[in-house]
Amino acid sequence: MKSLFGSPGKVSGLVLRISQCLFASASLAVMSSASGFSTATSFCFLIAAMGLEVLWSFGLACLDIHALRLKKDLHNHIVLSLLAIGDWVTAILSLAAACSSAGVMVVFMKDTNICSRSHATLSCDTFQISVALAFVAWFLLAVSSYVMFWLLATI
Amino acid sequence: MKSLFGSPGKVSGLVLRISQCLFASASLAVMSSASGFSTATSFCFLIAAMGLEVLWSFGLACLDIHALRLKKDLHNHIVLSLLAIGDWVTAILSLAAACSSAGVMVVFMKDTNICSRSHATLSCDTFQISVALAFVAWFLLAVSSYVMFWLLATI
């Protein structure tokens, strides 16, 4: 049995899942609280993708707690395949959402100056914080995805 | 020696690299020929990312031709590590560029209606074709990246 950092059913895996869940929730909460987020479809997509990441990471954190309490081994082919596919799909969606929102942010702040013209209706600083948190959440999920893929390839 | 589809130094690998190169070049050429692409930073980022993908894939296509002609084996740890890291960095940059451009496209076409108001200065249909080609180029590069990572893990 391999013992990589972030493996499922390990304390490091649980810490990684909780961190993903916290950063994705923070990004979702900050974006939802920003005024005028519904003006851009990408920001709504970011909320949906972060919601998916929260649900996925929370579910896997619960699985890790269950495995740690009962000292179960999660390193079998079926479990690792499901976790790897789920991790990759969620990671690609999170990166897509974070990048599209970042692209829209650049249009709002630099290319069209909408932010400086209508700073009363659009809270651009809050959007930026949410996008930064989404990138951190994606990075943590990408680490999990690589670990899952490595474990699946070497099992 | 593993013989996966798309392995370096194989005919399937060469076909995959040439396809990546062609789609990335097409995306770059279409975006560069569109009027008003410099209005959005994301479109310039797409051109840079597709340029990087063209250079990377073209270089690896040449390496594949060299290995096929001299019947060299490229399956050693150092070559595979370098190819895997390069593929992953290029794939993440391509996806980021394609997604940010897609986000900007949605802002231009749906959220702000800039496209319908100024269709003389912005060729929005051309932008869409370029973004679609960039997604195809990214998908082909993602296939290579997974193959490299799998070969590296199982070598």
Automatic annotation (TrEMBL), chains A, B:
It is a multi-pass membrane protein. It is found in: Cell membrane. The keyword Endoplasmic reticulum does not apply. The keyword Plastid does not apply. The chain crosses the membrane at residues 12-31, 43-68, 88-108, 129-153. GO terms for cellular component: plasma membrane. Pfam families: CASP_dom (PF04535). Residues 7-140 form the Casparian strip membrane protein domain. Keywords: Cell membrane, Membrane, Transmembrane, Transmembrane helix. Belongs to the Casparian strip membrane proteins (CASP) family. PANTHER family: CASP-LIKE PROTEIN, CASP-LIKE PROTEIN 5B3. This is CASP-like protein. It comes from Ambrosia artemisiifolia.
